[in-house]
Design goal:
- The chain is mainly alpha-helical and 403 residues long.
- The chain has helices at 14-31, 35-41, 46-74, 76-95, 100-128, 131-162, 166-184, 202-208, 210-240, 245-273, 276-293, 299-314, 319-327, 333-362, 364-385.
- The protein has a single domain (10-191, 199-402), classed as Up-down Bundle (Growth Hormone, Chain: A).
- The chain is 78% helix and 0% strand.
- The radius of gyration is 20 Å and the shape is globular.
- Helix 3 packs antiparallel against helix 4 (76-95), helix 8 (202-208) crosses helix 14 and helix 9 runs parallel beside helix 14 (333-362).
- Residues 13-390 form the Major facilitator superfamily (MFS) profile domain.
- GO terms for molecular function: transmembrane transporter activity.
- Its main location: membrane.
- InterPro entries: MFS, MFS_dom, MFS_trans_sf, MFS_Transporters, Sugar_transporter_CS, Tet-R_TetA/multi-R_MdtG-like.
């Protein structure tokens, strides 16, 4: 089904993929910065607030394998539509929460919806976009995600100022529902279902492709973990130094503008020079900015470090998606991507838990230095296993026999 490179236009993805992803991202992005404060209002300690936030990632992890089966049955467009609707339901559950258990259940349901939505669009782009346009298309998708996490916190900050923290939950419900509505009106011929992949063979594919998963899969998992640590760690550090929820949402939103600005540039870098030229700066940049965060003790230094962290993150816009698409074997796309995303999401889900454990035992600053060390390990692996060229014919994967 992959399109002809000469006839393909990235703009054809605007309505079926980018628009609903933006709406979904705004809803999710407005919510994530205020989850720790919402948990704290219900009596959570700082480590417990981190765990509640991490339940979004745990929900994503739990749904990764079932998501591949669902997409094979109903197709990518319908899977995205259903996921956005269920996300609205999960947020409504959290909105009505009177205990940490109910808040956590709603966040878990939201995370499961994120898994289905993300895998469906990833699978569609892997199949429908030619290799020559892959990095740019997926980087734009990464940029759309960043746009959501820029506009979302800004809207959230305004709503908290005008109303209260619950208004942010209502806002998230509305935007997720709008994403579902857009997909409802997308014609099937605009976003046709891709060929069904090998049903029920996820674990067999994972076993055969274990070299890819154990090397570049681990690199992507570390990168995903660092990015999650940024999403979770910045609000936690803001609480640690006494910033208000409104100020936290505002500063994180401002920093997110850098991610948005660099998204297309990242794709150009990857398509022209190769994937490593985005992956290495992101891994090393995020690693060392976590160490720098420990010296942020006031609003000015917090914003400065958040901006530098966003700069490092923005250089790698879409890199995890691109690596997964590059590695996915033909005819087993959904099954491989489900395993790949499971590994990445395992890193994503484990990171807040590890941060909470280290924070409880040694303090939040120690958790930041742990992230620095993990990122350096990821950079070493990326330097070893990522190809040095951009063109598929010139790639030098050490496991090229499985490509």
């Amino acid at each position: 089904m992959t399109a002809n490179p000469e006839a393909f236009k990235i703009s054809s993805l605007n309505l079926p993929v980018f628009a609903p992803s933006l709406l979904f991202g705004i809803g999710e992005g407005s919510l994530l910065p205020i989850i720790p404060a919402s948990a704290q209002q219900l009596g959570a300690s700082l480590p417990t607030a981190g765990i509640i936030t991490g339940l979004v990632m745990l929900g994503t992890l739990a749904a990764d394998i079932p998501a591949a089966r669902l997409i094979n049955v109903i197709g990518e467009r319908k899977a995205m539509l259903v996921a956005a609707g269920v996300a609205s339901l999960g947020i409504l559950v959290s909105l009505s929460a009177t205990s940490l258990w109910i808040l956590g259940a709603g966040m878990f349901l939201l995370g499961a919806s994120v898994s289905v939505f993300a895998l469906a669009r990833h699978s569609f782009l892997t199949e429908a976009v030619p290799y020559s346009h892959r990095a740019r298309s997926l980087s734009i998708l990464g940029g759309v995600f960043r746009a959501g996490h820029f506009f979302g916190p800004m809207i959230g900050a305004l709503l908290i100022t005008l109303f209260d923290i619950k208004a942010v939950f209502v806002n998230a419900v509305v935007f997720c529902a709008l994403a579902s509505l857009v997909l409802l009106f997308v014609k099937p011929e605009v976003m046709p279902d891709t060929p069904v992949t090998t049903k029920g063979a996820t674990w067999l594919v994972a076993k055969r492709e274990s070299k890819k998963l154990a090397t570049l899969g681990v690199v992507s998992a570390i990168m995903g973990g660092l990015r999650t640590a940024r999403i979770v760690g910045l609000p936690l550090w803001a609480l640690h130094i006494g910033l208000s929820p409104a100020a936290t949402a505002l500063y994180i939103g401002i920093a997110g503008a850098l991610d948005l600005a660099l998204s297309y540039t990242s794709g150009q870098i990857m398509d022209r020079f190769g994937r490593r030229w985005s992956a290495l700066p992101t891994l090393l940049g995020l690693s060392f900015t976590f160490a720098l965060l420990t010296i942020a003790t006031d609003p000015t230094t917090f914003l400065a470090v958040a901006l530098v962290m966003s700069l490092a993150n923005g250089v790698g816009s879409g890199i995890i998606l691109v690596i997964g698409s590059d590695l996915a074997p033909e005819g087993e796309r959904n099954e491989f991507l489900a395993s790949y995303r499971l590994l990445v999401d395992a890193g994503v889900a484990a990171t807040p838990i590890m941060m909470s454990l280290i924070t409880a035992m040694l303090g939040l600053a120690a958790a930041m230095f742990w992230l620095t060390g993990t990122g350096v390990i990821g950079a070493v692996l990326a330097n070893r296993y990522l190809p040095k060229r951009a063109k598929p014919s010139e790639q030098t994967f050490p496991f090229s026999e499985n490509m």
